[in-house]
Amino acid sequence: MRWANLPLPIGRRPALLLTRTPAYAYLAKVIVAEVTTTVRGIPQEVPLGRREGLARPSVVNVDNIHVVAEVRIGDLLGTLPDDRHREVKRALGYALDWPELKVL
Length: 104
What we know:
Elements: E1 2-6, E2 11-17, E3 29-36, E4 45-48, E5 58-69, E6 73-76, H1 82-95, H2 99-102
Antiparallel strand pairs: 1-2, 1-6, 2-3, 3-5, 4-5
């Protein structure tokens, strides 16, 4: 997770990078999902907190995905443990209505 300068009116906020790491060497734009403290308790959210480098309880909301210029990505906030990666994939399954991901 890194700080990201997302398009207005969103602005600067934590974001989970969804683009695979090797692609940063040649892509000018990357895919990110918003991290927010607004928790709705829906399957498209994955809970995050101090374990992942955040000061406050939050969620990554994969209903809010953005493609942004790589130059809009800032400092590292934290990383996700493996179990959170699986939860993000499952949440993406719900957001994209992709049944194979929902069962991970």
